[in-house]
Amino acid sequence: MIGLLGGTFDPIHYGHLRIALEIREALDLDEVRFLPCGIPPHRSVPGADAEARAGLVERATAGVPGFVLDRRELTRSGPSYTYDTLRSLRRDFGPELPFCLILGADAFAGLPAWHHAADLLGLTHIVVAHRPGESTEMAPPLAALVGGRVTARAGDLRAAPGGCVMWVDVTQLDISATAVREQLRRGRDPRFLIPDAVLEAIRTQGLYGRTSAMPPTDR
Ligand code: ATP
Ligand code: MG
Question: Residue limits of the Cytidyltransferase-like domain (predicted)?
């Protein structure tokens, strides 16, 4: 069973890395594939280009057992729809392997507006990570809206390639890429919100504004 964590990763931060690790452990996933999007469908232009964002994901995941960078969305033209990504993954991994698409609660709340929303659960399970500031009240009706069967048992996920929606409790880290970008823009030090290797690359490549004004990272 594999986990799929899509995102703009603009930049990747410890909020992403903790949900990937905790859900991998909770569900005993063989791997979590990080899928940086090329062109995000539902938001404004990212602060860094797709290759740079993927490079940051590569640094953050290097050497972590079970973390895999998957670049398939980067080379596709047009918006990076998760539906297309899932179909591409199904071609590679076959029809039977259970997939767990990992979403933060905010992303799950927006799911009904996604491209082919009603068809996603035919291709994957959805595992929702609680996120600070997001209410869970709307969760069951949302799951019903996209045709998911709500479950609390990992065994149900293993029993089928897709179709279930499951909530997983994770460490609540109130970190967002928006806040990290804002800190960088203002010349603040975002250490301890993102891995040092990611910050180093941001600084070397001059991403996200006034990074050159920041003091070097002690190592
Ligand atoms: P931005 O502020 O630019 O939207 P972000 O921090 O939300 O960035 P994304 O790349 O948009 O990061 O998120 C990718 C996925 O990770 C989404 O499903 C999102 O809900 C989830 N996620 C991101 N940060 C957290 C967090 N701190 N806790 C739980 N889930 C998170
Ligand atoms: Mg986001």
Answer: 4-182
Cα 25 to Cα 213: distance, rounded to the nearest angstrom: 39
Q: How far is the CA of 78 from the centre of ligand 1 (A)?
A: 22
CB-count burial class (<10 Å; 0-12, 13-18, 19+) for 83: middle
| Euclidean distance between CA atoms 120 and 81, whole angstroms | 11
- The per-residue pLDDT string of the chain (219 residues; one tens digit each, 9 = 90 and over) reads 999 999 999 999 999 999 999 999 999 999 999 999 998 887 778 899 999 999 999 999 999 999 999 999 998 888 999 999 999 999 999 999 999 999 999 999 999 999 999 999 999 999 999 888 877 777 888 888 889 999 999 999 999 999 999 999 999 999 999 999 999 999 999 999 999 999 999 999 999 986 444 454 544
The single residue listed with the structure tokens 């050159």 is 212
What domains, with CATH codes, occur in the chain?
Answer: 2-169 (3.40.50.620)
**What residues form DSSP beta bridges with 128?**
103, 167
Model ipTM value: 0.99
Around ligand 1, the residues with Cβ closer than 6 Å are: 7-10, 15-16, 19, 103-104, 106-107, 129, 131, 173, 175-178
Sheet holding 149-150, edge to edge: 67-69, 31-36, 2-7, 99-104, 125-129, 164-168, 149-150
